[in-house]
Amino acid sequence: MLPILGTDQTTRAGSMSPTNRFSKSSFRIALVLLCAPFLTGFSIEALFAPRAHLLEMWVVHDAESKRTIDHSSWDTLLKRYVVMGSDGINRFAYKRVTKKDRALLESYIREISKTKISNYNRDEQFAFWVNLYNARTIKVILDHPDAKTIRDIDISPGFFADGPRGKKMMVVEDTILSLNDVEHGILRPIWKDPYIHYAVNCASLSCPNLLPTAFTGKNYRQLLAGAARSYINHPRGVTIEDGQIKVSSIYVWFGEDFGGEPGVLKHLKKYSQRERVRVILHSRSSIADHGYDWALNGVSQ
User: Fold this and answer.
1) What's the pLDDT at 117?
2) What are the residue boundaries of the structural domains of the chain, listed by start?
3) 281-291: string of b/e by CB count within 10 Å (b at 16+)?
4) Containing H/E element for 109?
5) pLDDT tens-digit profile of 226-249?
6) Rounded to whole angstroms, how far apart are CA atoms 68 and 40?
7) Which has the closest alpha carbon to 132: 114, 147, 113?
């Protein structure tokens, strides 16, 4: 399911009569059709993907700092509720979270949000932002227990908004931030590392796995490499259909982070271990298709 062609039927409030109101989804579709004659390949999808936009205040760091941040509470929750499926997809047992563990999650978010993160080195900062992002994503799902997909939680402001990521919901160093701010305003523009997309979790089946281990300043590089390898060697990441390459939409939406289509192919070749996929990757110079399943990464019971 592609995000710009979603099923969100939320209407825009205003003085228009009901018959003249457009859903967000309908407006996106109309805009895509309007732009289609001037766009080719995956450029339509990329047009709607969030762009990296540096929030300059978060560039500040202390390269000499030896301080570390305690993520043990988050690590405990991940180990307790991340269920590794036989299909290679990690799911979170949202429905099993106890009242006590929900309080632990909220306490963790509250306490690490008090961190003056500008006083830490880059490694600690990376782990801080990723863990805060993922923990806050889990909390927003728990706050909306009837959601079938994160996109059902349509609480972001703005006509083009979809899901919860645009809503300001975290306060760090007296600054209110959204999930989009963390991903696209801090992580992507500061680190300029495509592996970030294997770290931040969107609570969906097609997203790279939510790991059962908290990121730290010491382990994050190893965890990211393992996450990339796992995703690329799963059909969610890349598969072959009728002899053509089909990839996760992540590689289209954020293709620029990987160096464009050539960069994506090079990246896939680096980690691919399935023989048939490797052969096709080395014999093609373009990607034929992409897809994404937004269904919630939850355990059914």
Assistant:
1) 98
2) 56-232
3) beeeeebeebb
4) helix 99-112
5) 999 999 999 999 999 999 999 999
6) 47
7) 113
